[in-house]
Every structure is written in structure tokens, then in C-alpha cells.
Amino acid sequence: MDGFDSKFDLEELKEFLEPRTGFWGAAYLYRGRALNVVQNRLDWRADYRDTILAWLQQNTPAGTSSTSA
After folding, report:
1. Taking a C-beta distance cutoff of 8 angstroms, is the pair 18, 8 a contact?
2. Which domain covers residue 29, as residue numbers?
3. Who has the most CB within 10 Å: 1, 26, 57, 63?
4. How far apart are CA 29 and CA 20, in angstroms?
5. Any idea what DSSP says for residue 5?
6. Whether the predicted model's global pTM rises above the 0.85 cut
7. Separation of alpha carbons 66 and 61, rounded Å
8. Is residue 44 in some structural domain?
């Protein structure tokens, strides 16, 4: 699931993010880039978290919990 209801929605988003001219065009372009940076950071954090949790599960002795207080 890509988060879009239809192919039309995806095409509309692509058209909106296309480079434009002038001040507002630059604002739209930077907004698109900022959204990409935020998405990349969220993806990186999720991957990092999953990697750490997998490592803890593999390296925690049986009968103990890595999340105990």
C-alpha cells in the first residue's frame, strides 16, 4: 500500500512536486525535498530500531529480558 487512493492521486502529487519557476516554484521544490529528507530519516530510524531489536533478541540469554526495569 503506497498511501494513495488511486493512480490519479499519485499523478496529481507528481505534477504538484514538479519544478516550477519563480519564488513559489522554489518554495514548492524545497517543500518536496524537505518531505523526502523527513521520510528518509523516519525510514532510517525504523531500520536502526529493527536492527537493534533483532540484535538484542539474538544476544539475550534465554530466561532474561532485555526490556526489564
Report:
1. no
2. 18-54
3. 26
4. 7
5. S
6. no
7. 9
8. yes
